[in-house]
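Researcher: Structure prediction, please.
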Amino acid sequence: MRRLWVGNCDSEYMVHRRGLLDAAEHEGTPAVGARMVWLLRDGDALVLPQPVDPVHLEAIGPLVGFDPARVHILTPDDAAVRCLDQQQLHEPGLLARLRALVRRPEEWEMRGYLHDRGLGSLARALGITGYAAFEEAGGAELFNSKAVFGALAAGVGVRVPDGALCATRGDLLRAVPRLLEATGAVIVKADRNAGGAGNWLCRTDAGMPAAGAQQTLDLTGPEDLDVLIAATGLEETHAPHGQFVAEAYHPYCRSLCVEIDCDPAHGTQPAVLNVGEMLMEPVWNGFLMPAPLTPGPQQTILEGALRLAAAMRAFGYRGLVNIDAIITPTGEVFFNEVNARLGGCTHLHHLATRLLGPHWMRTHTLRARNDLPATSLPRLLEDLHIHQLAWNPHTGEGVIITTDRTTLHRSVEYAVLAPTSERAIHLEHRLRTLQAGSAVGGYVPVRARAGTDLP
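Model: Predicted structure follows.
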């Protein structure tokens, strides 16, 4: 069966208010979809907001086993598109090209970043059958709600930060002072959004780091909350821009993500695929996989994540779910949210599995980041080989360029695979600190960020 993938990241069904996305988030949406290239097989097609550089497609295909000439990448006619909402997916030019490709709908199945109502609408327009009634009813979207997550977590008994669901300004004004008592900080999250967009860290200590939030509000008096009320748009009696969740904020935490398959090929129970540590700088900027965890926290995280996934599956959800948790400096574990869709680790796990086998986390470590400055993908790929940094199947280590962002961002995303953490750190250090005279990809080397573990 051929698969039609749709990179519907940040669609109107995933993000309640796209206006909350800042310019960087908006421009970064195409890169999130482009990670899905790693999931393709011969005969598949992928709809993206922006084209994929053929040079990168030629580099990816041999690594994961598809022939670049036998996959199809389709994009809207409008080069300014950054998000595949329904207006773009049903644009006459793109729809005509999709219908020409899907001449035998019975040979195709619909796949997406998020299995939302929009994919169901597109499937009907193309004559593709079999799209689940649960998904057409907005089931997958339901679990991307932070409000629903709170109820789900309470129902299955996993621990979450003390918090409150706020549907009015009164809710928020009562919640924030109460929640401040725990740590001196409160994070206020938009119910349906992504990447920390719409999140505010309200803090009494101006030096507290803002991991997971794009906006900060230093609280010196009750009047400061007027800024927060204005940002949320909450009224006395309703939430015209959607509800918000206020939580006691725990600083200096480690952020973890568990990816689970709620529709495993064998058996009926959800299956853990991977556990990664998210690098928050201040929002997610990469992964360490597998996450270095001691047995106690690891067991708590895995057991809680599986309880959440099992409840989702029992409710009707099928597919991947990415479940976020934190570990406080004192070792406490709290769950933050579930994302019933592909995650930032999905393509990383897929490429590592294709290169090293299903048990790759027993023998290797992976380090990934989203922010390597580069201006030329062809030169970057060439220089990786020249400097003997490119993935080498004989040594089982090397650098892989996972996403090309040179056109819009003058940067790339990368992964480093190596048999040991020390070796992976060494390769990443070499990548990021090459001398200017031999700069990889035409970039000026950057120093390691404060707080990272690069040498």
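Model: The chain is about 35% helix and 25% strand.
Researcher: Thanks, that helps.
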